[in-house]
Predict the structure.
Amino acid sequence: MSGKDLGYVGTDLARRAHAQSVLAAGGMTVTVELALPGEAMTRGSDAPDVVLLDTTGQSAEQAIAGIALLDAAWPSTHLVVLHEDTEPPVVRALLDAGALSIVTSATSDGQLVATVGAAAEGRGLIDLAVVRPVIDLYANLHAETRRRNRAVIESLAAAVEAKDTVTSRHLRAVSRLATQLAREVEPSLADSDDFLYGCLLHDVGKIGVPERILTKPGALTADEWEVMRRHPQTGARVVRPLGLDQMVTDVVLHHHERWDGGGYPSRLAGDEIPLAARVFSVCDALEAMTADRPYRRALPMSVAYERVRLEGGHQFDPDVVGALTSGVQRGTIDLEETALALDVEQPARRRISSSVL
Ligand SMILES: [Fe+2]
């Protein structure tokens, strides 16, 4: 850093001597020495390009006050702060106060030289030992957030299952099938937690449908259907405050849209319907047809499968139906496994395979 002025601010003479010796070995000479940050005010325009501020033994508040004093006196000077406490909130507070880089007494000589050299050029250089606690905290928080998200979602889904005993959604089986189909359509969808969350929560809005309608032993009246058809919007209102990805709301809100525009609640058509909802709606239909209702018997999975295929380009995205067919033929989608999980009778002679397609 030839041509750059280097300052050192600190009271501990042994640490100052050590730092000067390390920096000198790295080709840097300290030209400005102060014991306390407040002394910078008296130096007027004699501002170094970079200052190493020793706050060892000080609280975070004291260190921040020192940074503020130097920043007020020498606003264009880049600050490298020597501080021992590298807990994430402290690191953030020091950086917010104006530190460009933070080092500790454990920072290696080479790292110190590199950090001060980078600061002289106006660049922050991160000592991994300093940011490691930040990374660990972030990783732990991320894992905890995922665990809590999953717990909240499973709890909500269980609440709907408990209420909607007639349709008993077998959420895990349907979600597994949806993941298999998603992998055929768009692999990133299958790997997404948000897609799974959407599948698990798709009918959460049925919490707002009276049980006399959900469990009615007969076909619903027009008025009752109107109430039932509100469940996607109710579900979206339940899900939005959770702050999850938009994909979750997309599945909840649009899983009853139709490719031809005749669905609900928004009468979206074709590609207007989010892909995640187009994929899930195929699996939801397979499950719905293969579940007993008070007013009709369940269909065998093989029959439900044929009906879904006929609806490609009408109720369902033809490409998604094509992916379903392709996956079943290649064995990457296992409708029989899903049927078993859904307790759907599967006559031996009607095994679903390419031979009956
Ligand atoms: Fe639904």
